[in-house]
Amino acid sequence: MRLRSLFARSPAAARVLPFLIFVFLTSGQGLLGEVSTYWIYLAKTLVGIWLAYEMRGLVPEIRWTFSFRALGIGVLIFVIWVGISGDWTTQTSLWNHLGWSHGPALPSPEWDPWNHFGHLGAIFFIVVRILGSSLVVPPIEEAFYRSFLYRYVANPDFLKVPLTQFLPVPFLLTAMVFGLSHNEWAAAIICGMAYQWLVLRCNHLGEAMTAHGITNFLLGAWVVWRHAWQFW
User: Fold this and answer.
1) How far is the C-alpha of 99 from the C-alpha of 213, rounded, in Å?
2) pLDDT for the residue 19
């Protein structure tokens, strides 16, 4: 209840703190050994569910909304995500290609539960990963990037900035920050712009959340089907 009270008093905290907690837990994945990556992801997902529950009603622009437009964007971004490849399209390969081995610290792309668990254990963590990325990540990330950061760059009193107002600098800067928070930075920048466009069109986060969830679900299915663990 204390956290919800904080969210009620501070619109910024309601949009920023859940994201920061999520990032903090993500940074701990693998620090206690390779297997801890999976258990911390599980903990992060459960914490994320709790955070989203505490945000309910206090971030009014968060409401799941389906549309064929969101479906199309979600599928398109998935195709771009798996279709773009090269020495410059991921941060890992880019820094190595440039001869700078001390690039930004990113979570290890190696996520293959079959190497650490039996059949049921591997399936369990795959399901956790897909559901977590499809249902828990979208509201938390969209609230931070598309609702808070985009508007805060324009005006620290961010609630005065309409969600429908197109602002070139915040639009590009938010997409860049979102992109550089992912290993697949090139695809993620395009992704950030597409989701922001949905918010600009809808005046809420619902379609962006749906597109985000569809992209992540399809990406998860692709990872499992093609054993393309580098995307995780």
Assistant:
1) 35
2) 98
Q: CA-to-CA distance for 151 and 156, rounded, in angstroms?
A: 8
Evaluated on CA atoms 89, 95, 96, 98, the torsion sign reads: positive
pLDDT in tens, 64-82: 999 999 999 999 999 999 9
Which tops the pLDDT comparison, 109 or 191?
A: 191
Question: 199 near 59, Cβ under 8 Å?
Answer: no
Rounded-to-5 percentages of helix, strand, coil across the chain: 70, 0, 30
DSSP letter for each residue of 110-160: ---GGGTS-HHHHHHHHHHHHHIIIIIHHHHHHIIIIIIIHHHHH-SSGGG
The three-state secondary structure class of 49 is helix
Is the CB of residue 198 less than 8 Å from the CB of residue 176? no
Structure tokens at 159: 């609630």
CA 121 to chain centre: 25
CB count within 10 Å of CB 104 equals 11
> 163: left (phi > 0), else alpha (psi -120 to 50), else beta?
alpha
